[in-house]
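Deliverable D5.2: sample structural annotation.
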Amino acid sequence: MRSLQLSNALSALAALCLLGAVAAMVRVLVVGLAWGGVETPVLTKVRVETMASMESVLDERSAALVEASYSAPDHMGVRTFTGTPRLLSSTSKLARAELSAESVLADGVSRGWTRTSRVAWFVRREMAALGYDVESLQKSYIFSHAGNSLGLLAMAICASLCSQLVLSRGFDLFGSVERGMPGERAS
């Protein structure tokens, strides 16, 4: 009986690892390839002129939220995100405000692109204007998440093989070998 419980636990672990591997690969495909590695519309650094453009298309409340989330401009005219990490979430009020503004400002990019793709283009353009190597950032994002996916896949394979081994050999939770059929207690 103990070997059956251990086998079930290992099978559950394998299933969770497979789900994690699939989720990581979806992130590689969607965020890494389609959106260029842009996970959130919230810019961590923004030029003063871009900030002014964004605030000009927002309502007063959203513009005030965006304004309060960034530092004063430095000597190069760059403002840095100073809000909480929670505001970086793609579901935060700040993210929705910036998404709205960036979508409007990137509206002329391509009529066939989705709103998210236009926003990703806008964010990548702003990052490139600030001197970031956006291609390198995208590759880094893809390789790190692909590596996570492969690691989880390897764990799933190991857990699945161990589960089969436990069932075929009749190991119990304490390491002794049972006699008889896997899952049955020896008399």
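Annotation notes: The chain has a mean pLDDT of 82. The chain has six helices and two strands.
The annotation will be released with the project's public dataset once the embargo ends.
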